[in-house]
Write the structure tokens for this entry.
Amino acid sequence: MLVAESHIVVDVALKSGVEPCSFLVDERDLESSRELLDRAGDEVPAFVLPHAEMEHLTGFRLTRGLLCAMRRPRPRSVPEVIEGARNVAVIEDLTDVSNVGALFRNAAALGADAVILSPRCADPLCRRSVRVSMGNVFQVPWARAAQGEWPARTLGILREKGFSCLAMALDPDAVPLDDASLRGLGKRALLFGSEGYGLSRAAIEGCEKSVIIPMSHGVDSLNVAASSAVAFWQLFR
């Protein structure tokens, strides 16, 4: 089960074929929610509460007026989501669900065809990740790598399918994103590491190259969500 929050996110989820189970609606937003409730069908119950009771029930200040409990989509495998893809984002051990959601939004907007998660990466379908992604976790195909296949076998699958694996890493031999050597690459898989320590050494060594965003004023890196937007724009457009 997952929770979709806000009219926009629920709308994207329904259009993507995610199955609704029930709605929780702030009575102030009931009229504006009518179209979504009707689209879900009469068999999906909608529970309506006064605004003051919503926070008491949910445990947080609900500002979007609408929650929908939905069934999780069927999990996919790595080979399945990269079939036919040219640009793939790979994320290792991100722990902040907001970063995961933002990366998915960037991926959808800036040309990624699929996303692969390491086994320990935060859940893209938790409520906050779904909301920050603006529902794009339902639009971009994604898969979680199997525990025993990360990172060697997972990156091996990508290479077998013709992908060049590029690590976003502060490595001594890293090249800038606009380096001429990157222009001739065909299919690309771009790896991003955790917020604290970046990519593991095993993941970096499984890639053909390390790449960086050139920085100024002594700054060594950007937040992973911000760096993904820059990298996707440069390499996936």
